[in-house]
Design a protein that fits this description.
The structure holds two protein chains of two kinds. Chain A is an alpha+beta fold. In chain A, about 25% of the residues lie in helices and about 35% in strands. Chain B is of the alpha+beta class. Chain B starts with 6 loop residues before the first strand and ends with a helix. The chains are: A alpha+beta, B alpha+beta.
Chain lengths: ~260, ~260
């Protein structure tokens, strides 16, 4: 996914970024009605009316409608050369000070060869001191502010929102309110009665369970269809590039 | 001011109902790139292509299948799937309360600010916020919004209530999945490491950090748009600290920090 170094002061640890989250959503493949062949997402040029292979795809910034400025990976990496291969911890902070509103997406860092001992040290020391490391790093075309935290002996890295992305909340909370003593007492009793240990495994996605039920029912009622066998492997270039492009497209689509 | 109301509902636990409005707490704006065809710089679109025939397939010829084994699919009708969407409701049901600190940050997803719904006479909002703050508690709750069921944590921030969506347990990978090997680190190294981290500790001031990369990226785009040449810089790489030099590096770091 991403290989680089995490550093604090004069210590540098080679690490790989790995996923900490996998979507639990049940996924369906989109198939061609005519032959049940699975469909693949490909980039299509409306001008040439053809599928464009990854090596003919470039990135562009829209200067004006329909006018694009091409930007290469080398140029993008050149924007912040000190951060594209290095997660440099600038400060350590008390983990409790981080307002959860800042948390965005979690990853794990896994040690690469030779880095295991320093990795273990950093994880253990942050656990003992209840500290997190604050760092900045750049991946593809984005710079992330991240918190590196110790998690069950491993290092997790959570991307944080920038403070300018956190919307002000003024005007939402009620002004100095006079509290209703009776209501408060009643609520407090409920809260105490309902207090438990945090155990996320207790909660399942009800939607997902219903989908599984549906699929199990259908399995009994209808036979699965068979997709035609492909003659050769899809010669679409390196798979990771396709995945990376799809990732970029998702980000484009998710733009609010 | 925060963004507009995105959803309205009512927090429910015990005998209490607290009507609230949800507002997004976060807004991301980033420079976006598009994918172009190298030869003519035409913007590309995504298209679904039949892997067998290698032709674009229009939406009306697309069907959904669940892969039961390799190459075998159970065809699922969209109308059948529609039946599995949760019933819409306006209830944010609190199932239990936990200590806030017990919730691992890996579970937290997206935060919403809750506003008391003043269209309905809303007692309880301020009382609940004060209780959750005082007891350092979070309510674990579920609700349905935009045809999706959510799991979330209800927490207080000052006098305000906030709701943070949470990932389901099976969506969060455990640290054990990394299969890290046990490695001995000496007490001396741990002691110096702890001293060093304490030396380097500062208050969390997110305002200190701006997205410099975004500003530099804009500069790069402006430079290129003027037709000027861009100097390419190589990414900096650091030499990993070898295990037998770790203690030395820690001691040198501590000396530097002092």
């Amino acid at each position: 996914m991403w290989d680089g170094t995490i550093s604090f002061s004069l210590v540098a640890i080679p690490v790989r970024l790995v996923k900490a989250v996998k979507p639990g959503r049940i996924t369906f493949r989109t198939l061609h009605r005519a032959d049940y062949s699975p469909l693949a997402r490909r980039m299509f040029c409306p001008e040439h009316e053809q599928i464009v292979p990854p090596d003919e795809i470039i990135r562009g910034y829209e200067l004006a409608p329909g006018r694009y400025l091409p930007v290469t990976d080398e140029e993008l990496e050149s924007v912040s050369p000190e951060r594209s291969r290095t997660i440099e911890i600038i400060d350590f902070i008390d983990l409790d000070e981080v307002d959860p509103v800042y948390f965005d997406h979690p990853y794990y860092l896994a040690p690469l060869k030779g880095g295991e001992k320093a990795y273990r040290l950093l994880a253990e020391v942050m656990r003992r001191t209840n500290k997190a490391g604050l760092a900045k790093f750049v991946m593809v075309e984005r710079e992330y502010l991240v918190a590196v935290v110790s998690m069950e002996g491993a290092l997790a890295m959570i991307t944080l929102h920038y403070s300018e992305e956190v919307l002000p909340d003024n005007g939402i909370a009620p002004k100095e309110a006079k509290l209703e003593a009776v209501e408060k007492k009643r609520m407090e009793r409920s809260i105490r009665n309902m207090t438990a240990e945090f155990d996320p495994a207790k909660y399942a996605d009800l939607r997902r369970e219903k989908v599984v039920d549906l699929l199990n029912l259908k399995m009994k009622e209808q036979a699965p269809v068979e997709a035609p066998v492909l003659e050769e492997e899809e010669g679409e270039g390196p798979a990771d590039l396709v995945a990376a492009l799809e990732e970029i497209m998702r980000e484009v689509k998710n733009k609010p | 001011m925060p963004s507009g109301t995105i959803w309205k509902g009512s927090i429910h636990f015990g005998d209490s109902h607290v009507p609230v409005k949800l507002h997004s707490a976060v807004k991301q704006e980033r420079i976006q790139f598009h994918l172009l065809h190298r030869s003519d710089r035409v913007r590309l679109h995504q298209q679904m292509i039949c892997a067998y025939e290698n032709i674009p397939v229009p939406a009306e010829d697309q069907i959904k299948g669940f892969e039961v084994e390799e190459g075998k699919y159970l065809i699922v009708d969209p109308e059948e799937l529609e039946l599995t969407t949760p019933e819409s409701s306006r209830m944010i049901e609190v199932h239990e309360f936990v200590k806030s600190g017990q919730i691992s940050p890996l579970f937290l997803d997206h935060t919403y600010y809750l506003e008391p719904d003043s269209d309905i006479k809303a007692p309880g909002y301020s009382e609940l916020a004060e209780l959750l703050r005082g007891m350092d508690a979070a309510g674990i709750c579920t609700w349905t919004m935009r045809k999706r069921s959510y799991l979330g944590a209800l927490q207080a921030s000052g006098r305000m209530l906030r709701l943070c969506t949470m990932r389901y347990a099976d969506e969060v990978l455990t640290a054990a999945s990394l299969e890290l090997q046990e490695i001995d680190v000496s007490e001396k190294e741990l002691k110096i490491g702890s001293d060093l981290i304490n030396q380097l500790t500062a208050p969390f001031e997110p305002r200190k950090f701006v997205n410099e990369h975004q500003q530099r990226l804009q500069k790069l785009i402006d430079t290129k748009a003027r037709g000027e040449k861009v100097v390419l810089l190589r990414p900096r790489t650091l030499r990993p600290t070898p295990p037998d030099e770790l203690l030395q590096a820690l001691e040198a770091s501590l000396k530097k920090a002092a």
